[in-house]
Amino acid sequence: MIQPQIDYLIPKHPYENICYIIDDIKFLNKEINDVVYKVQDIILNEIMIVDLKIYLECGIVVSDKCNISFLKEMHERIGYPCNKDCTYSNDYNGSNACKPKLIKYCRIYEDNDKYKGELKPSITFEEIKKIYSD
Ligand SMILES: [Zn+2]
After folding, report:
1. How far away, in angstroms, is 112 Cα from ligand 1 center?
2. Which ranges of 43-124 does DSSP label H, i.e. alpha helix?
3. Are residues 37 and 87 in the same domain?
C-alpha cells in the first residue's frame, strides 16, 4: 500500500523547507521554459508572417509578405510576374513570370537575426511543370 512521505511534511530544520520550495521553483521554471520553447518553435516555423525580398533572375528585386510555413512549402514554385520582354521570363500559369534566384525573409517588424533566413529555389520552370502539373 502507498504510504504518505511524512519526512517531507515536517522539516527537520527551518532551512530545509526553503530547499523544497527552491526545488519546486526550479522544477516549475524548467517546465515553463519547455513550453515557451515549444511555442516559440511553432511560431518560428509555422505562424510568423515574414517580409520577403525576392531577387529575380533578371535582376529585379520585389518585396512581398507571406506566412513562413507557406513560404517554406511553396518557395520552389514561386514565379513572379515580370515584363513581357524580360529574357528570363516564362509562361507560368498564363502570365509572364520570372523565377527568383534568392528569397530573403525576415519576420515583420523585427530586425533580429533569429527571425531571418534565405531560401534558394533550385528547380526550373520546366521541372515545376513536370513535378506539380498534376
Ligand atoms: Zn524578369
Report:
1. 30
2. 68-74
3. no
